[in-house]
Design brief:
Layout: E1 6-11, E2 14-19, H1 30-45, E3 51-55, E4 60-62, H2 67-70, H3 75-80, H4 85-93, E5 98-102, E6 105-107, H5 109-116, E7 119-123, E8 127-129, H6 143-151, H7 153-162, E9 166-167, H8 168-174, E10 179-181, H9 186-198, H10 202-214, H11 220-234, H12 238-248
Parallel strand pairs: 2-3, 3-5, 4-6, 5-7, 6-8, 7-10
Antiparallel strand pairs: 1-2, 8-9
The structure holds octanoyl-coenzyme A (CO8).
Octanoyl-coenzyme A is lined by residues 24-25, 27-28, 63-68, 84, 105, 107-109, 112, 131-132, 135, 140-141.
GO molecular function: enoyl-CoA hydratase activity
Protein name: enoyl-CoA hydratase
Family: Belongs to the enoyl-CoA hydratase/isomerase family.
C-alpha cells in the first residue's frame, strides 16, 4: 500500500513506521492518522512481524495536531464528527508491541501519540510537552489521563498547566521514557531492542502487553486475576514447552509462535 504522510520499512521481524510531513514537523492531520492506523493494523495482522517502531524525523517526532486544520473548527465540527477518536482508536487495537522512538519535538498530540505506544525511547534531543493550554484547548488524545499515570500528578499538572517543554533527561527521570540514547544512535539502538522483542515468542509478548495495559484499566485484584489467567494460558503454548526445554537442555530456544 502506498502512503503519502508516512514511510514504512520492514527489516526481518521489525516494522518501522516513520511519520513524514517534514514541512510541518510531522503535525498530525486526519490523513496521517488514517494512514498510520492502516499501517499499524496491517503490520499487526502480518505473521512475519513481531515488533513495530513508530518514529519521526531527527527534528520532530510530531509537533502536535495540525493547528492549521484545527483553527477553523467550531464546536459542531469537533463534537458532531467526534474529532480525534475516529482515527486514533486504531492504535489501541494493535496487539503487538509498539515502541515510540522519539527525537526532537513530541508536543501535544505528538506526546499523546508517543504515550499510546507501549514504551517510549528517546534521543537526548527529545522534548516533550502538552502545550495545548497556550492555544486555548486542553489535551484531547489522552494527555490529561496518560501523563499523570506515567509521570505523577504533580509533574503532569506542571506540564499541562504551563505548556513547558521537558527534555529527555527529565522525561527519563520522571518515568515517561524508558531509555535515552545519543541522537545519532537512536534508531539503530531502538531497532536492536525491537529485534530482541520480535525474537521473543509472539503470543507471550502479546500477553505481556495485554497484562501490563490491564494495570491501567482495572483494580489491582482484578489485574492480578487477569495476569494469573494469562499466565496459566502460557502453559497451553508450544513456546512455553520449547522455552523451558531449551533452558533445561542449555541450548537456545527455537520459538514457533504457537
Ligand atoms: N500544526 C501545524 N503546523 C505546525 C505545527 C502544528 N502543530 N507545528 C509546527 N508547524 C509548522 C509551522 O507552522 C512551520 O510552518 P511554516 O514553515 O509554513 O511557517 C513549520 O511547521 C516549522 O515550524 P516553526 O517554523 O515554528 O519551527 P521552529 O523550529 O521555529 O519551532 C516548534 C518548532 C517549537 C515545535 C513550533 O513549531 C511550535 O511551537 N509548534 C506548535 C506546537 C504545538 O502547539 N503543538 C500542540 C498542537 S495542539 C494539539 O496537539 C492538540 C492535540 C489534540 C489531540 C490530537 C488530535 C489530532
Amino acid at each position: 500500500m502506498s502512503y503519502k504522510t508516512i514511510l514504512t520499512e520492514v527489516d526481518g521481524k521489525v516494522a518501522t513506521i516513520t511519520l513524514n510531513r517534514p514541512e510541518v514537523l510531522n503535525a498530525l492531520n486526519d490523513q496521517l492518522m488514517d494512514e498510520l492506523g492502516a499501517a499499524l493494523l496491517g503490520f499487526d495482522a502480518d505473521d512475519n512481524i513481531g515488533c513495530i517502531i513508530l518514529t519521526g524525523s531527527e527534528k520532530a517526532f510530531a509537533a502536535g495536531a495540525d493547528i492549521a486544520s484545527m483553527a477553523k473548527y467550531g464546536l459542531k465540527d469537533v463534537y458532531r464528527d467526534d474529532f480525534i477518536t475516529r482515527n486514533w482508536e486504531e492504535i489501541r487495537k494493535v496487539r503487538k508491541p509498539v515502541i515510540a522512538a522519539v527525537s526532537g519535538y513530541a508536543l501535544g498530540g505528538g506526546c499523546e501519540l508517543a504515550m499510546m505506544c507501549d514504551t517510549i525511547m528517546a534521543a537526548d534531543s527529545a522534548k516533550f510537552a502538552q502545550p495545548e493550554v497556550k492555544l486555548g484547548i486542553i489535551p484531547g488524545a489522552g494527555g490529561t489521563q496518560r501523563l499523570p499515570r506515567a509521570v505523577s500528578k504533580a509533574k503532569a499538572m506542571d506540564l499541562a498547566l504551563t505548556g513547558r517543554m521537558m527534555d529527555a533527561a527529565e522525561a527519563e527521570r520522571s518515568g515517561l521514557v524508558s531509555r535515552v540514547f545519543p541522537k545519532a544512535d537512536l534508531l539503530k539502538e531502538v531497532k536492536t531492542i525491537a529485534k530482541e522483542i520480535a525474537d521473543m515468542p509472539l503470543l507471550t509478548a502479546m500477553m505481556v502487553k495485554e497484562a501490563v495495559n490491564a494495570a491501567y484499566e482495572t483494580t489491582l485484584s482484578e489485574g492480578i486475576h487477569f495476569e494469573r489467567r494469562l499466565f496459566h494460558t502460557c502453559f497451553g503454548t508450544n513456546d512455553q514447552k520449547e522455552g523451558m526445554a531449551a533452558f533445561m537442555e542449555k541450548r537456545p530456544a527455537k520459538f514457533t509462535n504457537s
